[in-house]
Amino acid sequence: MSDHVYKSIEITGSSPAGLTEAIDRAISKASQSVRNIDWFEVTEIRGHVEEGSVGHYQVTLKVGFRLED
């Protein structure tokens, strides 16, 4: 059994192409400044409507990362 300690943060990604791309963008950007990301949980999905159709998908994530020893 591991004795790791984790911290979590909340981030939001967006994309005009869909939910998966919004998640991928958010994780990719967070990975540039946060080390040891191990998991994510989708906490909210919403979007922006432009002229009667979806302009952007927005996905809020709780992201967990291991604290270093």
Relevant terms:
69 residues, Dodecin subunit-like, 1 helix, alpha+beta, 3-stranded antiparallel β-sheet, 3 strands, single chain, elongated
What would you say this structure looks like, in words?
This protein has 69 residues and is α+β, with helices and mostly antiparallel strands. The chain contains one helix and three strands. The protein has one helix spanning 19-31, and strands spanning 6-15, 37-50, 53-66. A three-stranded antiparallel sheet has the order 1-3-2, covered by helices on one side. The mean pLDDT is 95.
Short overview:
The protein is 19% helix and 55% strand. The chain is α+β, with helices and mostly antiparallel strands and 69 residues long.
Distance between the termini: 16 Å
Q: Tell me the radius of gyration.
A: 14 Å
On the 0-100 scale, what is the average pLDDT?
A: 95
Broad CATH class: Alpha Beta
Number of domains: 1
Indicate the overall shape: elongated
Helix and strand topology:
Layout: E1 6-15, H1 19-31, E2 37-50, E3 53-66
Antiparallel strand pairs: 1-3, 2-3
